[in-house]
Amino acid sequence: MDHAGAVAVGQLLVATQPGRGGYFDRTVVLLIEHQSEATVGLCLNVMSEIPASSVLSDFTELMSPPVSVFEGGPVNQDVVVALGEPASPESPPPGWERISGDIGVVDVNYPSELLVTSFTQLRVFVGLSAWSPGQLEGELIRGSWFRTPVRSEDVFGDPDGLWRRVLRRMGGSTGRWSTWVEEPSLN
């Protein structure tokens, strides 16, 4: 698996070397922004203890199960980001910016009465995963992440077991990481 190459919005970063601990152990991160100043992503499989109703109460009916707020990452914990799938992808709603396919960032400051009928699925995140210029590229070269394109079910599906499912889907020697167990002597 090539860890180098161009970083792009819409890629999933899948943590390698499980069991080492730390915030990103067994995480799957969707890259939502990549510019010269920074790269920004959202952890798709880290749930918070924040009730969804306390963040975006107008949108709880649209939230994909589990109806929870997810931890997008360890920085900027005051930032709220929503990912949504439009009800009518051929005419995207206002306040929505495409990331990949039918997945996009929803402007949570847009009037909720206009957004509620515009989406079939929604996932809400607090916080971000962010890298300074060159930082993510360095981590890729060191082999800290695998990369693969995102699918809708990665964002809006069951977060439990997401890390294993994505690795398995990647196949080959990368797919073997999905069988990693907590006890190192069993690997």
UniProtKB/TrEMBL annotation:
<dbReference type="Pfam" id="PF02622">
    <property type="entry name" value="DUF179"/>
</dbReference>
<protein>
    <recommendedName>
        <fullName>Transcriptional regulator</fullName>
    </recommendedName>
</protein>
<dbReference type="InterPro" id="IPR003774">
    <property type="entry name" value="AlgH-like"/>
</dbReference>
<dbReference type="GO" id="GO:0005829">
    <property type="term" value="C:cytosol"/>
</dbReference>
<comment type="similarity">
    <text>Belongs to the UPF0301 (AlgH) family.</text>
</comment>
